[in-house]
Amino acid sequence: MSHIGELFIKIRLANCLSALAELQHAYFTCYSYRDYFSKQPHYENVLYKKRSKWLNKQNAARQLLKNKKISEKWHSLFSSIDHLSEIIFALHQLRFREREYAIFEICSLEMQSVDKAISIAMKDAIKKLVWGKKLNQPLELLDSVIAFEAISHRVLKVTSSEPIIFLFFIQNLYAINEEINKVYEKLS
Amino acid sequence: MKNYLKINSIRHTVRIFCALVASLVVNYYLASTKEAWLPLATLIVMLTPTGSALYQGLWRFFLLSSAVIIVSLIFSPIRSLYMRMYDVVLGAVIGIAFNVILFPDKVDIEFRNAFVPILRSYSLYFSSLVSLLLDKNSIDAEKEKVNVEEKLMKLPAWVYEAGFDLTLQKGYRYFFMKVGQIGEILFAMHHLARFTYPDNLLNTIREPLLQCIVRVEQFIAAIITVLELKKLSVKIIDFDLELAEIESQFKEIVSSAMDSVSPSTDLLYLTEFIYNLQELRNALLRLTQTLR
After folding, report:
1. Is the pLDDT of residue B256 over 70?
2. Which pLDDT score is estimated for B245?
3. Is the dihedral of CA A170, A174, A177, A183 positive or negative?
4. Staple partner for B173: which of A41, A66, A72, B164, CB 3.0–4.6 Å?
5. What is the pTM of this model?
6. B202 and B86, same structural domain?
7. Which residues in A lie closer than 8 A to residue B271 (C-beta atoms)?
8. What ipTM score was computed for the predicted complex, to two decimals?
9. Chain B contact set for A85 (CB, 8 A)
10. CATH code for the domain of B186
């Protein structure tokens, strides 16, 4: 595989990660809109555009990886990004499950810090992929997940009409943390 | 020829071609400048998405007029502005009139046809996910996932365009949103089905879960039949009984474990899978309700 060919793959995978980071941020933003439930089709249109962008980038990367000469390393990295996207979809089923805005208001700070930590972790992965920047484990992400779990145990379990959905949410946050760690390992 | 004219893109192309011929004739006899502003205006106001020809046509006319006014005021005498605007107005009238009157968009048919492929791929994807969960058959699931992703990129996003028919807007956008939601539920289930669960857990729900595949296929086939405006040969059969059976059998095993402070990951994941199955049913029911 030529150096230019490898650079091309890196750029496609970075585009994929970048679109996924944008999509996950857009999902988290929904929880902060007071009128999300009354204007759901409008906000879902914004999400649809972000999702389409991600699908396009994902498809472009997949087309490139169809070449049999490409190293297994890139296939493995793409699988991790693909799995990461599935976890993000699983995570944000929350917006269809919990329809009480007040619940999201209670944990808005924790939500924002989780969103920020995931975005930073993904952006760092992009920098490593394209520029070869040194990576540290995303400890900030794990901390923010633990903080969310704490508020969930203290408040959300009592206030939410269906506490189990927050158990699912936390489980998926841990899964994201694990998958991002796998991406980091594959990049190092 | 009649069949070709049922395809919206061909209707649009024919419309544009006829309008351009008309505008070239008018340009030859009536245009005040020979700078081709008239056919250009016709073409620009006709490049509209499905279902919003009038609004988007007027909007494009407004943008083109603004551009002509600004450019003419800066670079040429005021007299040529009047002449150009005369041509632009004439061209826009021809374009909008052809776009609205000649072979207008068949929004309803276009919308219905656009969802058939994605619903078919959802049905196949769902059965491959159950196969992944029960038998660890990941090849089919990956293949069907790619198929779903390709179809998701072709959804009729024009229902969200400004100026889309107000009477259809709400229902169509809701349907669009629900179809997108089903895709997300299936992607979420893919993540959960990747996990390896103990055989005793899977065996408790195997039979009703396999039955669910048949029901979901029947459900989606019925929705497609309605979308294709054909008569339903059999009544839509809900899969609430299968779901209830899965829940009751699953609860027997896990009720004590779920009450603990931190239930194990596999239990939680499988519970979420079943929860997603219920949400899939709810979303499919919503789709059928919007079709009534």
Report:
1. no
2. 83
3. negative
4. A41
5. 0.89
6. no
7. 164, 168
8. 0.93
9. 187
10. 1.20.58
